[in-house]
């Protein structure tokens, strides 16, 4: 973070001095006070963080959108067909979808609840973008390094089902109502095992910030080896959280047409689909940082490249599971979540505590 | 607590293949009543047929059910032959048996595609379509068309086997045997698939018989009734194969019966092509049949299909009634659906191999 | 261990079944006996008893098809009832006068015939007494004609 | 009918091992196979599937061979063939078939009944057009470069020979002397010689029979049929005012 941050602080400092100089030139009292205020440290700090956040968001969205390309290509090859053919090797497909979605007309169902109908999508999207903030690429490229980053991430992540439920209810359509209820039940059922796995990692590493966890893993051992049960439960719960095929019920095409987002037509539907993939990216990123040692890796390539490579590999496993299995029913998902994943997560917590007490690590 | 809600899994819905409507009464997620509504694809086939000459109806019989057009084509020609009092030459009988069994495998693979999409695994869909291409090429080499073959004629078949056809067929069958094992690995050895199909849509043998079910669905409920053995026609009497049955009567049993039937069909094809005697393949048939009526029934990939033909001595049939197996299987679907969840509907109806062309005629 | 019903060898021959039916129902006329086929002509009144007898005593498990035929001066409803145990397909013809085409329904005996009778009512206008819900199955409810009748001219504005 | 105790025994390898492990292995093998050599899908406009010679696309015609017998028009199930006047390269006008390809269901019956193999089955199936009128192919547009694979020939056996048993000969589709023949019912004929004029194959010619017409004292002429040229198109039967001609089928 040092290089990017210092560069940007010098830049904003130079910018603020320039503005202050201009304001002084006008010789008006108030404006020169404004100039001094601008040059003060907190304002400069705020503006640089803003700039870093914008840059960081753009890079993360570019990589998250590559997930869509990866899914189309690999799913195609699993099914013995070609993936997308739009543009070079299919890379232009995302922009083509984006342009198509932007051009579509915004239709609001007749007697649906307009305010909630609009609000659902933006809260869904906002919670996803906030999550980007607290996930670092490597120890010197991140927006903020909060020492409670893990807690913050999981908390914001739990906000998703709320907006799905509201979106499903507000669209005034039987199918979306069922889809919304299913999504809420499924995400809550799979949230608990997810948290327990994260807790077991935190117990072992004793640190709540991602940078600390990765640093710990660099010295000792990647956490996937001692906590392999935890890694497996986290992986399965992550598939459920990002609503992918084995746990695809909320937007199961077979019965509920498109699930809770049936009535959204234009950019709102596009953003909803994109944020599904962003959430998948976040879960893969969490998995790499908690279990695969984040950006730890031999020096010959950058730390960020290591982090991205591992995230893409984890997403490859997501696609692989999608290609191989069949969608299962809602009550089976809940049964799986409460009866299979929860005990496994608890066992994993016991292992972590045992390892901690025995000071193995 | 939740009052009952009628849901129209309407004429245009991702899960139903073909135009038909399933009105389902839901109490929460479980189905309390179901009512299939058909008639959206009613083309008035039986009225149309009454003002065409006998040889002109042969290509029309193909269009009854586009999934297994050769079996309808053959049923019409067999009924007309019995009406005319003509017997197809022996070589034609063996070729017909081989072509019918290839059509049965193609129809079962189309059904497998429908099951794949309904249960959410698109790999099953694309792989079964890829396997189906093998047989479409064979039938295209034999008859000249890929789906509506127009291959049988009243009094034999259109043309003899192309040169070294038997070698191509045997090579395809060996290749298909390997690929069928891959397909089964995707389904039988896949726990979510078993979760979605075991114990769903149960129906025991007695009620199935009373409700008029025939074909693989009846055999899955433990009734060993196959018209190829019970009422042998063409050259089935001297084909050595056994009837595949299952005892549970649920969705998995129906799937299992069809997969075994594909293997039996492969055996029959090999026998038929090996034992086909030399000789003519087609007999010249008079224009006008004697007055009278005739009934003929055949084992269609979906069940017992029957044709009743009345002639008044002119060159046009006076009345031609078609009994389609799917028409009756669909009428017996409500008892299968009641008591199960709405996300089971695609599994139950998908395995029933709906073909709306023959249901509505 | 669960049970499978197997139909490999017929229990009775065609003649036995034919003679059993003629003994019980003198009014039923036997038209033809062929290998695995029986052809009867039954009067309208004794149809339901005949079918009940065939189902209960003679093990005819499956009503294959119900076919209405319009012979201009009268209707004929042809029932195809198959017995898997004896490998027989019995064809029962019932003649109905053209002015009141009503006959007893066999849907209570075999559930399979339910939709066939609804289709016969829908396309040919034959009323089946005792049918659970006799409605049109293929054509819209407000369609007033029965298209399969010979007096229905194709292509006329309906 | 007997009740049998039977338990369904699956092949031993059909048991789920490791929840979804076997499916994962199989799909991964599929992935490797599809990336190593090309996936089996065909990129349609650039790559095309190879169709066998007898593939049935739209019907085509070889105008030189067509004699205008209209058997294809009679046998088409969808009634999409009409006979229309067309300029012959050799001069004069004649009726040739015009196919409404929009209605055609590509069943190949017209090529099958054509006695002179003028109607052929072409492998062309890309027939989209901007208006329905474009889909009505007049005889000139219907033409297609001829290849022997496109003709539809078949051999048939005769019913009588089949019933007699013994050695059964098969006859080609357009065998000149094994086909239904036209029979004249002499008293009805008023020798108007319309059938001789309409016969496309030139198989009928009016021949004088011995008697004289009592009123006009001129020799009576009756149509005489040359069965080798006749193509059983039944145009003479339709055109005969006294319906004196009928078909005697050869079985």
Describe the structure.
The complex is a heterotetramer of chains A (361), B (361), C (158) and D (251). Chain A has 361 residues and is mainly alpha-helical. Chain A is built from 14 helices and no strands. In chain A, helix 1 runs antiparallel to helix 2 and helix 7 (160-170) runs antiparallel to helix 8. In chain B, helix 2 packs antiparallel against helix 3, helix 4 packs antiparallel against helix 11 (251-275) and helix 5 packs antiparallel against helix 6. Chain B has one domain (4-359): Cytochrome-c3 Hydrogenase, chain B (Orthogonal Bundle), CATH 1.10.645. By secondary structure, chain B is α+β, with helices and mostly antiparallel strands. The model of chain B has no long low-confidence stretch (mean pLDDT 90). In chain B, a hairpin with a 2-residue loop joins strand 7 and strand 8 (303-311). In chain B, strands 1-2-3 form a 3-stranded antiparallel beta sheet. Chain C is an alpha/beta fold. Chain C has a single domain (14-129), classed as NADH:ubiquinone oxidoreductase Nqo5 subunit (Beta Polymerase, domain 2, 2-Layer Sandwich), CATH 3.30.460.80. Chain C has helices at residues 14-24, 47-56, 113-124; strands at residues 2-6, 29-34, 37-42, 62-70, 74-83, 88-97, 102-104, 127-129. Chain D has 7 helices and 12 strands. The radius of gyration of chain D is 29 Å and the shape is elongated. Chain D has helices at residues 21-36, 71-75, 109-113, 139-142, 159-164, 194-198, 235-239; strands spanning 2-6, 59-61, 81-87, 93-100, 119-121, 136-137, 155-156, 171-172, 181-184, 204-212, 219-225, 245-248. Classes of the chains: A mainly alpha (361), B alpha+beta (361), C alpha/beta (158), D alpha+beta (251). Chains in contact: A-B, A-D, B-C, B-D, C-D. Strand 6 of chain B pairs parallel with strand 1 (2-6) of chain C, so a sheet runs across the interface.
Measured distance between first and last alpha carbons of chain A = 28 Å
Largest sheet of chain D: 3 strands, antiparallel
Radius of gyration of chain A: 23 Å
| Largest sheet: spatial strand order of chain D | 3-4-6
Brief characterization of the structure:
Chain A is mainly α and 361 residues long. In chain A, 72% of the residues lie in helices and 0% in strands. Chain A has 14 helices and no strands.
């Amino acid at each position: 973070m040092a290089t990017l941050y210092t560069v940007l602080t010098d830049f904003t400092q130079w910018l603020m001095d320039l503005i202050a100089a201009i304001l002084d030139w006008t010789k008006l009292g108030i404006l020169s006070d404004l100039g001094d205020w601008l040059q003060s440290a907190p304002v400069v700090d705020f503006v640089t963080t803003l700039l870093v956040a914008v840059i960081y968001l753009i890079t993360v969205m570019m990589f998250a959108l590559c997930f869509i390309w990866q899914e189309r290509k690999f799913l195609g090859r699993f099914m013995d067909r070609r993936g997308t053919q739009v543009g070079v090797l299919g890379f232009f497909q995302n922009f083509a979808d984006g342009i198509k979605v932007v051009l579509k007309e915004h239709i609001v169902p007749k007697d649906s609840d307009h305010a909630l109908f609009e609000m659902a999508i933006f809260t869904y999207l906002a919670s996803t973008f906030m999550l980007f903030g607290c996930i670092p690429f490597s120890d010197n490229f991140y927006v903020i390094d909060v020492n409670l980053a893990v807690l913050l991430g999981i908390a914001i992540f739990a906000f998703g089902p709320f907006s799905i439920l509201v979106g499903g209810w507000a669209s005034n359509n039987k199918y979306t109502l069922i889809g919304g209820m299913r999504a809420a039940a499924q995400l809550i059922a799979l949230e608990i095992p997810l948290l327990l796995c994260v807790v077991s990692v935190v117990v072992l590493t004793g640190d709540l910030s991602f940078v600390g966890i990765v640093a710990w893993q660099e010295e000792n051992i990647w956490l996937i080896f001692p906590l392999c049960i935890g890694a497996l439960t986290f992986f399965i719960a992550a598939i459920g959280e990002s609503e992918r095929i084995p746990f695809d019920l909320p937007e199961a095409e077979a019965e509920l047409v498109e699930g809770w987002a049936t009535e959204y037509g234009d950019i709102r539907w596009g953003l909803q689909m994109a944020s599904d993939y962003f959430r998948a990216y976040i879960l893969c990123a969490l998995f790499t940082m908690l279990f695969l040692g984040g950006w730890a890796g031999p020096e010959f390539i950058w730390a960020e490249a290591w982090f991205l490579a591992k995230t893409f590999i984890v997403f490859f496993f997501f696609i692989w599971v999608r290609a191989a299995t069949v969608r299962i029913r809602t009550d089976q998902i809940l049964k799986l979540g409460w009866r299979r994943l929860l005990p496994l997560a608890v066992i994993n917590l016991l292992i972590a505590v045992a390892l901690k007490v025995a000071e193995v690590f | 607590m939740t009052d009952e809600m009628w849901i129209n899994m309407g004429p245009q819905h991702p899960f139903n293949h073909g135009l038909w409507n399933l009105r389902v009464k839901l109490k929460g997620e479980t189905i309390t009543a179901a009512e299939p509504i058909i008639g959206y694809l009613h083309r008035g086939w039986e009225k149309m047929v009454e003002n065409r000459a006998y040889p002109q109806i042969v290509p029309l019989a193909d269009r009854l059910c586009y999934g297994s057009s050769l079996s309808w084509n053959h049923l019409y020609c067999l009924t007309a032959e019995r009406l005319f009092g003509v017997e197809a030459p022996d070589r034609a009988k063996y070729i017909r048996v081989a072509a019918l069994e290839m059509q049965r495998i193609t129809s079962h693979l189309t059904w497998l595609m429908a099951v794949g999409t309904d249960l959410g695994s698109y790999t099953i869909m694309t792989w079964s379509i890829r396997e189906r291409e093998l047989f479409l090429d064979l039938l295209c080499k034999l008859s000249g068309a890929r789906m509506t073959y127009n291959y049988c004629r009243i009094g034999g078949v259109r043309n003899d086997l192309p040169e070294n056809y038997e070698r191509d067929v045997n090579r395809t069958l060996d290749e298909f045997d390997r690929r069928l094992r891959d397909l089964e690995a995707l389904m039988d050895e896949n726990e979510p698939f078993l979760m979605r199909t075991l114990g769903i849509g149960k129906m025991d043998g007695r009620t199935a018989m009373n409700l008029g079910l025939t074909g693989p669905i009846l055999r899955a409920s433990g009734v060993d009734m196959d018209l190829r053995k019970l009422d042998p026609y063409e050259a089935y009497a001297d084909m050595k194969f056994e009837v595949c049955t299952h005892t549970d009567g649920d969705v998995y049993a129906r799937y299992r019966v069809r997969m075994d039937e594909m293997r039996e069909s492969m055996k029959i094809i090999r026998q038929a092509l090996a034992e086909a005697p030399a000789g003519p393949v087609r007999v010249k048939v008079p224009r006008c049949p004697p007055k009278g009526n005739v009934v003929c029934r055949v084992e269609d990939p979906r069940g017992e299909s029957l044709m009743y033909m009345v002639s008044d001595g002119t060159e046009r049939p006076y009345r031609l009634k078609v009994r389609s197996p799917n028409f009756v299987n669909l009428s017996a679907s409500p008892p299968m659906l009641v008591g199960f969840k709405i996300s089971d509907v695609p599994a139950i109806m998908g395995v029933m191999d709906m073909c709306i062309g023959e249901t509505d005629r | 261990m669960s049970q499978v019903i197997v139909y490999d060898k017929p229990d009775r021959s065609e003649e036995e079944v034919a003679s059993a039916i003629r003994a019980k129902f003198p009014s039923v006329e036997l038209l033809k006996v062929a290998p695995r086929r029986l052809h009867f002509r039954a009067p309208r009144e004794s149809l339901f008893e005949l079918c009940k007898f065939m189902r209960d005593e003679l093990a005819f498990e499956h009503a294959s098809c119900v076919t209405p035929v319009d012979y201009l001066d009268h209707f004929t409803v042809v029932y195809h009832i198959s017995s898997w145990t004896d490998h027989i397909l019995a064809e029962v013809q019932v003649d109905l006068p053209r002015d009141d085409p009503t006959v007893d329904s066999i849907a209570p005996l075999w559930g399979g015939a339910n939709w066939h009778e609804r289709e016969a009512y829908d396309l040919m206008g034959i009323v089946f007494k005792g049918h659970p819900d006799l409605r049109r199955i293929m054509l819209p409810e407000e369609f007033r004609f029965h298209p399969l009748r010979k007096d229905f001219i194709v292509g006329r504005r309906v | 009918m007997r009740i049998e105790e039977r338990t369904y025994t699956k092949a031993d390898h059909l048991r789920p091992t490791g929840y979804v492990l076997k499916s994962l292995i199989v799909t991964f093998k599929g992935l490797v196979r599809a990336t190593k050599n090309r996936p089996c899908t065909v990129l349609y406009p650039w790559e095309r599937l190879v169709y066998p010679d007898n593939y049935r696309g739209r019907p085509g015609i070889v105008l030189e061979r067509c004699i205008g017998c209209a058997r294809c028009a009679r046998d088409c199930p969808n009634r999409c063939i009409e006979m229309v006047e067309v300029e012959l390269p050799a001069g004069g006008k004649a009726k040739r078939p015009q196919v409404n390809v929009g209605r055609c269901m590509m069943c190949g019956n017209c090529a099958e009944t054509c006695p002179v193999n003028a109607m052929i089955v072409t492998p062309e199936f890309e027939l989209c057009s901007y208006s329905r009128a474009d889909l009505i192919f007049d005889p000139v547009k219907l033409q297609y470069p001829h290849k022997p694979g496109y003709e539809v020939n078949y051999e048939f056996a005769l019913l009588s020979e089949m019933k007699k048993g013994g050695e059964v000969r098969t006859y080609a589709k357009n065998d000149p002397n094994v086909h239904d023949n036209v029979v004249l019912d002499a008293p009805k004929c008023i020798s108007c010689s319309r059938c001789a004029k309409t016969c496309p194959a030139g198989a009928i010619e009016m021949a004088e029979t011995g008697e004289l017409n009592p009123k006009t004292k001129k020799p009576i002429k009756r149509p005489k049929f040359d069965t080798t040229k006749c193509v059983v198109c039944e145009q003479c039967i339709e055109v005969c005012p006294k319906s004196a001609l009928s078909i005697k089928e050869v079985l």
